[in-house]
Specification:
Layout lengths: L3 H11 L4 E5 L2 E4 H17 L7 E5 L4 H13 L2 E4 L6 H11 L3 E4 L4 H5 L9 E3 L8 E2 L27 E6 L9 E5 H14 L7 E4 L6 H12 L3 E4 L5 H11 L3 E4 L1 H9 L13 E4 L6 H11 L3 E6 L8 E3 L8 E5 L5 E4 L16 E6 L13 H7 E2 L2 E10 L5 E6 L4 E3 L2 E3 L1 H9 L4 E11 L3 E10 L5 H10 L10 E4 L13 H5 L10 H16 L1
Parallel strand pairs: 1-11, 3-4, 3-5, 5-6, 6-7, 10-11, 12-13, 13-14, 25-26
Antiparallel strand pairs: 1-2, 8-9, 14-15, 15-16, 16-21, 17-18, 18-20, 19-20, 20-21, 22-23, 24-25
Helix pairs in contact: 1-3, 2-3, 6-7, 9-10
């Protein structure tokens, strides 16, 4: 199999003059970008980084971040991308855990770098004159950017398909984050599957907004190179900027978490901006409510609407290319994957759950996209890797057609009165109410029931708990799953990649929405006045 450096060379050789990367006013073709990547790879080696060394990069989705990602693939260096919002102790842990040899960062992440004792022991390359640096990014990248090299370098890259490409750190909800090392062949197989499963054509154009420290962002970056496509950087999420980018660059495909799709539709400019170039929608990272599925389908009328279910460890677990036909379905195993649902307390991959029985989802580690184990974490391997299968920690079930439904995390399962209750089922029902903007369901401690089902609702228009309870009673939701309480909140807490943080809701870390019916009427009047203007 080709390594990723040679994979990028394919695009340079096929389409040297095609627009490859955009970041504001910065725009380069594949040939021009190749020149910058080679210079960055040379700069890393000159800095003392050798084959197999780790480089920590704490940057937003800017052109330098994308360039360094590819430079590491050419140089045989392992990139360790980290959330630019990381706190000092999180960054310090990753520097030590991965044994990084240098750090690249920017002003927004400078404080964490400066307060990390481990970071002070390695070279620190800064962008935009960030404080605490030992060198400037000019060491790695040309000051004059955007100039094509005179010729394409034909020297083989310094990596093979079996070398490590990157280490992704999972967001640990309990304990320390776990490093997920992935080889070039894992990453290339995942990118090829992404192209195939999303029916990408030559020259697709996508929004580079999912962070490049997250598997979804990396997949968007690599898949565009596979089809000689365009990657439009979005440094920090802004719905209006995203809409403007869609219109300006005629973007053809979006791959986002549900939260960002919600924000696009909620932006007042959505109806006035031409988004007709977008023909393919894909989502991952969290379940999408039935209500949002319907709204997106009506707004974009996509030719393809893909629900992708996976993880950092196994990029694709399942795929559903017809997300609106069976709302909630995650489809069937991806091109490179085998999957099963085993009983919740299963210790063996052979303890398979029955149809419609909720269990834990597991994936075959022989799949081309699957990792081989966590970075220096035998404890995590012992918990998650059993008899050649990866136990995801996600819950779900197969229906009678053989389609997978992902219902949540094992840790999120609500156990009330001895019944296992999935939050996702309840959220799907409530999301269809026209007054509900967003909803999250969690189990709150209860002396009698063990846990009480509570729905936390962000309203679009005024609605009360009695009305929502009647809505649930009128649905096919079984009685014991009905929320016993409704809490109306200003916002639903989420992680940087849009996953609902139920633990914050359970801990009371939210702001209540105390508005009464009059607030909804006032908001309607304001909307009418704005429309008139």
């Amino acid at each position: 199999m080709l390594d990723l450096g040679r994979t990028f060379l394919q695009s340079v050789e096929r389409s040297p003059n095609a627009l490859a990367l955009v970041d504001g006013e910065f725009r380069v073709t594949y040939a021009q970008w190749h020149g910058l990547i080679l210079q960055a790879a040379h700069g890393l080696r000159e800095l003392g980084l050798a084959h197999g060394d780790r480089l920590l990069v704490v940057l937003q989705n800017r052109w330098e971040m994308a360039t360094l990602h590819w430079a590491c693939q050419f140089a045989g260096i392992v990139i360790v991308p980290l959330n630019w919002r990381a706190k000092p102790d999180e960054l310090d842990y990753c520097v030590s855990d991965a044994g990084v040899k240098a750090i690249v960062y920017e002003p927004v992440s400078a404080e964490a770098v400066m307060q990390s004792p481990a970071a002070q022991k390695v070279p620190r390359i800064a962008l935009d004159d960030a404080p605490g640096r030992t060198a400037s990014i000019d060491v790695l990248l040309a000051v004059q950017t955007g100039h094509a090299p005179e010729s394409i370098e034909t020297t083989p890259t310094h990596a093979s398909a079996d070398d490590y490409s990157l280490i992704l750190y999972t967001s640990g909800t309990t304990g320390k984050a776990k490093g997920v090392p992935r080889r070039h062949r894992h990453e290339r197989a995942a990118a090829l599957a992404h192209v195939a499963q999303n029916l990408y054509r030559h020259g697709e154009r996508t929004l580079g907004v999912m962070p490049l420290y997250h598997t979804m962002g990396v997949r968007s970056l690599l898949s565009m190179a596979l089809v000689d496509g365009l990657f439009v950087c979005v440094r920090r999420w802004n719905a209006r900027l995203a809409l403007d980018s869609i219109a300006q660059y005629k973007l053809s495909c979006l791959y986002l978490v549900p939260t960002l799709y919600h924000d696009l539709l909620a932006d007042r400019a959505f109806g006035d901006i031409d988004t007709s170039s977008v023909t393919k929608l894909g989502f991952a990272g969290a379940p999408m409510s039935d209500g949002l599925l319907k709204r997106l389908s009506a707004a974009f009328e996509p030719e393809l609407f893909v629900n992708h279910y996976g993880s950092s460890e196994v990029y694709t677990v399942s795929i559903d290319q017809h997300a609106t036909l069976k709302p909630g379905s995650a489809g069937r195993a991806g091109i490179n994957t085998r999957l099963r649902v085993v009983k919740l307390d299963a210790q063996s991959p052979d303890d398979v759950a029955a149809v419609r029985e909720e269990g834990q989802i597991i994936a075959d580690l022989l799949g081309d996209e699957a990792f081989e184990g966590y970075w220096d974490r035998p404890d995590a391997n012992a918990k998650s890797l059993r008899n050649g299968w990866y136990f995801t920690g996600d819950t779900g079930f197969f229906d009678e057609d053989g389609d997978l439904y992902v219902s949540g995390r094992v840790d999120d399962m609500i156990i009330s009165g001895g019944e296992n209750i999935s939050p996702v089922d309840i959220e799907s029902v409530l999301s269809l109410h026209p007054c509900v903007d967003e909803v999250a369901v969690a189990g709150v401690k209860d002396e009698r029931w063990g846990q009480r089902v509570v729905a936390f609702v962000k309203r679009r228009d005024y609605v009360d708990g009695d009305t929502l309870d009647a809505w649930c009673r009128a649905s096919d939701l079984v009685n014991f799953k009905r929320p016993r309480d409704y809490v109306f909140v200003d916002d639903i807490p989420k992680s940087p990649v849009g996953k609902i943080l139920r633990r914050k809701l359970q801990a009371g870390e939210y702001l209540r929405d105390e508005r009464g019916p009059a607030a909804s009427v006032d908001a309607l009047h304001q909307h009418i006045e704005i429309t008139k203007e």
